[in-house]
Amino acid sequence: MTKLDELINLIVQSKLITVEQLAEAKKQPAFTSDPEEAIIKSGLVDVEELTRLKAKIYNLKYRNLLELKISDQALNLIPLEVAENYKIICFEIVQKKMKVGSLDPENFKAFEAIDFLAKEQNLRPEHYLISTLSFEQAIGQYKTLGKEVSGALKFKAEEDALKQIKTKAKETDVEEITKTAPVSKIVSVIIRHAVEGRASDIHIEPMQKESRVRYRIDGILHTSLILPKNVHGAIVGRIKVLADLKLDETRMPQDGRISVNIGGKEIDLRISTLPLLNEEKIVMRILDVTRGAPTLEELGFIGPGLKVIKKNLEKTDGMFLITGPTGSGKSTTLFAILAGLNVEDINISTLEDPIEYYIKGVNQSQVKPEIGFTFASGLRSLLRQDPDVIMVGEIRDNETVELGIHASLTGHVVLSTLHTNDALGAIPRLLDMKAEPFLLGSTLNIVVAQRLARKNL
């Protein structure tokens, strides 16, 4: 007996249709070529019910995706091209499981692809059977970003007209036109989807014939959008305007900041531009300022390591250093520590580049090297501000090391970060920056090394 015969028998046994109704359906010409479709079109069996029974025949789990809003994180685990080719959809990630729906239970290449993708992400695959309707609904969610941007691109021609209108329009009219311009919509859609997809960074990169938008999610970059090359300059210009950067400066890197409200959340975007061969690349770091600084426990510090950190934070002087590569969360850990130390009877001052989290009650300053306000010069000023705790965003040079050591010798707690691969590497790095060995022994309380690890949802 074939799987199709088993399915038809199960439909009858489940009393969804009678033997007579089945016999009537078999008379239809379409039944010979596609019995399942003929049964569905007859209106006797719902497509989801048929898929549920089919899953039983193939010993698979069944899932209805019609009412499910799939997260961008889950969707992005399987690229759109792969999903359409193999007719598979990742609809949920939970407890190291990657739940994937397949349209065809006999497409073994699809199951092999799922197993490969799951292994690549250090997840366990969990196979489900889904209906055609569920698959089409999920694919539609994939394409939401593309549709919104495509809609904006259709009106790209209006941009040329805007340039002429702006010269004649009043200032208030110009502002209104700018808000509704197609490029403005493209930028806002890119930012909104990045925030909703829990991305930490947005990369907008010029390529030879196109412009690529990638999101960094859980430490991995995913291509989310390919745009025509002719809009890249306009997008860069729009972001520069929002970040108050110089539009005519394309030879030097620039840094800026944008604040937006998305879904009731205040989001800060740290903007960095980089000149390439013919165009500029933009990277935007996403910071949720409404979230506030996390606790050490929320960051994953547990057991003996957490006890050692908390014990050293009880000291009233000395240096506390956090090491690790760029993007490993050192600043976030520092803010978790500051939030824990932040009480009314302690004066906390910081020097940052830039300020990533705002903490109520903490005196936060942003360094501006272009006007001479560096970590070293700022640290000198902070020592005259009667601080109990000083946080310096990063130790970069000999002068900052020397000032930090002297501050910790004179009864201050100094928190900072250092770019080394491990905790032991902090000592030779400090010595290389001309720190005196005997002073390090007196002032250095603790060095913490950390890395980012993916979170199990």
Overview of the structural elements:
This protein is α/β, with parallel strands linked by helices. The chain has 20 helices and 16 strands. It has helices at residues 3-13, 19-26, 30-33, 35-41, 47-57, 72-76, 80-86, 108-120, 132-142, 144-153, 158-168, 171-180, 182-196, 232-242, 303-313, 330-341, 375-382, 398-409, 426-432, 437-443, and strands spanning 61-62, 88-94, 97-102, 124-129, 201-206, 210-217, 220-228, 254-262, 265-275, 280-288, 318-323, 348-352, 363-366, 389-392, 413-418, 444-449. Strands 7-6-5-10-9-8 form a 6-stranded antiparallel beta sheet, covered by helices on one side. A 6-stranded parallel beta sheet has the order 13-12-14-15-11-16, with helices on both faces. Strands 1-4-3-2 form a 4-stranded mixed beta sheet. Strand 3 (97-102), helix 8 and strand 4 (124-129) form a beta-alpha-beta unit.
Number of strands: 16
Oligomer: single chain
The termini sit apart by 42 Å
| Inertia-based shape | elongated
- Number of helical stretches of at least 4 residues: 20
**Largest pleated sheet:** 6 strands, antiparallel
